[in-house]
């Protein structure tokens, strides 16, 4: 039997609730990184609040999952990212986010145009940003006996170009403003 180490990084899945931001926060170690098990491609820290660093990949796939969903609620999803000054391969790269509810749910996709606007700055920014609009997915109100696990991801798998210099600080999931307003109206 082989004890070969995987070339992919599998998450510890220990998200934390940030009550100030009203969001569940996923540190880099709480996310899955394709090629993240190989330090030639990614450096995924075990320490909290240290970003994961993309060394070099042509297939960018970072995913996570969230099991705290409730039927009838909508959730916003995002990532906090930045770029190293020498980042390459991002010009015109179609960075995309996806999400679905349950294993058999319909996948929702959103192209993140703001990534190229933010490439020059080293300060972390949230994507999608205001220019992209929010990325939101809803759980069916009749989902009581269904799989309601939210699965989400960040991808660039289409160009085949090598990309470097991306820093992933965190991912986050929050109850959308529309869900919060509906709850307040019902109360």
From TrEMBL:
InterPro entries, sorted: PP2-like
Domain of life, per lineage: Eukaryota
Pfam families: PP2 (PF14299)
Protein name according to UniProt: Protein PHLOEM PROTEIN 2-LIKE A9-like
Lineage per the UniProt record: Eukaryota, Viridiplantae, Streptophyta, Embryophyta, Tracheophyta
């Amino acid at each position: 039997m082989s004890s070969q180490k995987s070339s992919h990084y599998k998450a510890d899945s220990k998200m934390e609730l940030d009550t100030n931001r009203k969001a569940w926060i996923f540190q880099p170690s709480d996310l899955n990184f394709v090629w993240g098990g190989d330090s030639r491609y990614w450096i995924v820290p075990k320490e909290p609040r240290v970003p994961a660093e993309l060394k070099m990949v042509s297939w960018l796939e970072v995913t996570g999952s969230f099991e705290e969903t409730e039927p009838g609620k909508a959730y916003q999803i995002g990532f906090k990212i930045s770029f190293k000054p020498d980042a390459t391969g991002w010009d015109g790269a179609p960075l995309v986010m996806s999400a679905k509810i349950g294993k058999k749910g319909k996948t929702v996709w959103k192209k993140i145009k703001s990534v190229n606007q933010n490439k020059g700055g080293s300060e972390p920014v949230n994507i999608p940003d205001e220019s992209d609009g929010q990325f939101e997915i809803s759980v069916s109100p009749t989902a009581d006996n269904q799989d309601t696990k939210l699965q989400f991801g960040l991808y660039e798998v289409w160009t085949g170009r090598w990309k470097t210099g991306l820093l992933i600080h965190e991912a986050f999931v929050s109850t959308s403003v529309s869900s919060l307003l509906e709850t307040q109206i019902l109360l």
